[in-house]
């Protein structure tokens, strides 16, 4: 009986972990610049960024607004610059877009872009 | 004899080079100390940003500073009556003498800002370098600061916004006002959009700079000509000051 229970528990556990790693429901996101150019790397390991990007941003926003420290690698403008879709220069718009897609999947409200722009800043040289 | 002359020539050449070196080097050192803030270092009270506006040079009917502010910060420029306004032109008439004057009115960046005193969340704050700002992450939109401000300098964002500028995030439900183009200053630029527009229009009515640096243009001018603060009786010591009012 105990062996059977353990087997059931194990099978459930493996199924769950497999689901967490990759499944049909995992969003296939448009990651922006990194998709076409492997030399473009995120500011930290993607595994860490997935978990704690909000903490980096929260810390950085206070540094910037109150102390005037800009140009840190953890800037929201930096996120948008890399991760905005190369098609429409945005991180929002559909479930494929980087920020919106993952936040929909994780069911976490995303309110950064009520004030901050969700568009990549396109300079004259880039748009050519 | 010729040896003496050569020595003398040599001496003069070397000493003139040395003098030139001295003249440039202290200037450069001074400039570095006074102006440049290394990236990653917090703002300090060594700098106090201020503005001196000469209302005698400010032309009636000219609106270039207001337009430039809207362009720089992504404001609508007053399409709707509720739209934000960070700087506005004011025409004044002295009832006794009928003298007309014109000036731009904006956040005065007080040393003792009443908007900061009344803010219940700490969203309204004064940065170490004298710029009074709203931290929109903390602002709950109560608008006490708008009531407290004697200059009517602040606006409330009533409608949802789209297409904000990357450097100037703004959104519905928050109070906002002139930031002295803080995004420019943090990048090392030392002009504001309104000042640039005024200079470009040829009026040169707006002078912007560091009030704490005795060698800055603005500090020299404040020392040498009569200037006034609006509602100086309130004792707020605004960073924005006016000539000819």
How is this structure best described in words?
The complex is a heterodimer of chains A (128) and B (245). The model of chain A has no long low-confidence stretch (mean pLDDT 83). Helix content of chain A is 52%, strand content 0%. Chain A is globular. Chain A has helices spanning 2-21, 33-36, 46-67, 76-83, 98-106, 124-127. By secondary structure, chain A is mainly alpha-helical. The longest helix of chain A is centred in the middle third of the chain and has 22 residues, at 46-67. Chain B is of the alpha+beta class and 245 residues long. In chain B, 31% of the residues lie in helices and 16% in strands. Chain B is built from seven helices and nine strands, in the order H-E-H-E-E-H-E-E-H-E-E-H-H-E-H-E. A three-stranded mixed sheet of chain B has the order 8-1-9. Chain B has a two-stranded antiparallel sheet with strand order 2-3. In chain B, strand 4 and strand 5 form a beta hairpin. In chain B, helix 2 (64-73) crosses helix 6. Residues 17-34 of chain B have low confidence and may be disordered. The chains are: A mainly alpha (128), B alpha+beta (245). The A-B interface holds A 61, 63, 65-72, 77, 80, 114-117, 119, 121 and B 37, 39-43, 125, 127-129, 133, 135-137, 160-161, 163-167, 169-172, 174, 182-183, 185-187.
List its traits.
heterodimer, A: 128 residues, mainly alpha, 0% strand, globular, B: 245 residues, alpha+beta, three-stranded mixed sheet, two-stranded antiparallel ribbon, 16% strand
Structure summarized in a few sentences:
Chain A has 128 residues and is mainly alpha-helical.
User: What number is the mean pLDDT of chain A?
Assistant: 83
So what's the overall shape of chain A?
A: globular
> What is the makeup of the main sheet of chain B?
3 strands, mixed
Q: Helicity range of the residues of chain A?
A: 40-55%
Order of strands across the main sheet of chain B: 8-1-9
Radius of gyration of chain A: 19 Å
**Rg on CA atoms of chain B, Å:** 23 Å
Structural class by SSE content of chain B: alpha+beta
Helix count of chain B equals: 7
